[in-house]
Amino acid sequence: MTDTAMIADVAAQPLHAPPSIVRRLRRAMTSSPALMGLILLLLLAFFTAMRPDTFASVFNIRNIFLDASGLLILATGMTFVMIAGGFDLSIGSVLVFSGVAAAKTMETLGGEGVGVLIAGTIAAMLSGIAWGVFNGVCIARLRVSALITTLGSMGAALGLAYLLTDGNDVRTVPKLLMSIGRDGRIAGTFGSNDEPTGRKLRAAVDKAMALVG
After folding, report:
1. Rounded to two decimals, what is the model's pTM?
2. Residue range 177-205: mean pLDDT, rounded
3. Taking Cα atoms as reference points, which of 86, 101, 91, 56 lies closest to residue 70?
4. From CA 43, how far away is CA 49, in angstroms rounded?
């Protein structure tokens, strides 16, 4: 085939134009995340219209964000697991066990200081890491399927949590823990209970910006 024939053959092939912006927007709007976001917005508008004085209040919106914060943290970890091609059925039970471990640690140490709260946080983190290492060793080293491994650890973590608490709630945690996120105050950490934490943080940010400027 001569060069002239090759050029003519290439010229005869149809050119595929890149997708237009409208087509990309249409594809994005019909995707699952966009549809779920639209449904959530419609639900938000519906409940706001039904109870405008209570549902749309600052207190209720703050509670919604506080309740969703834990789920968002769990979803972040599950995102990495799903990107790697796996899944984890034990994430909820590990969360319960970590919370029980933190509560029992703070209950054992006693007191209302920040150190007790930090010790409970460390206990919760170590508990989660321990269950993660156990699942990882079983799946990566022992070649047990993720379904069987996480299904077993789900029952084991939840069962151990029940054994540690005898099936009862642990209510003897420091009041400092309960004050976090309530009324925007953290008692004993950022100052007196009469000054909101957000105001102190804003003042610190303003000072830092003044120094930078």
Report:
1. 0.65
2. 51
3. 91
4. 10
Alpha carbons 106 and 99: distance in angstroms, whole number:
11
Cα(182)–Cα(164) distance, rounded to whole angstroms? 28
Question: Residue 93 has which token pair?
Answer: 């039970």
Express each pLDDT in 10-65 by its tens digit.
Answer: 455 554 545 577 777 777 777 777 888 888 888 888 888 888 788 878 888 888 88
Contact predicate 197/185, CB 8 Å: yes
Say if CB 57 and CB 65 are below 8 A apart. no
Helix (H, G, I), strand (E, B) or coil at 78: helix
Q: Report which of 175, 127, 134, 171 is spatially closest to residue 153, judged by C-alpha positions.
A: 134
Place of tokens 């419609």: 42
- Quote the CA–CA distance of 207 and 209 in Å, as a whole number: 5
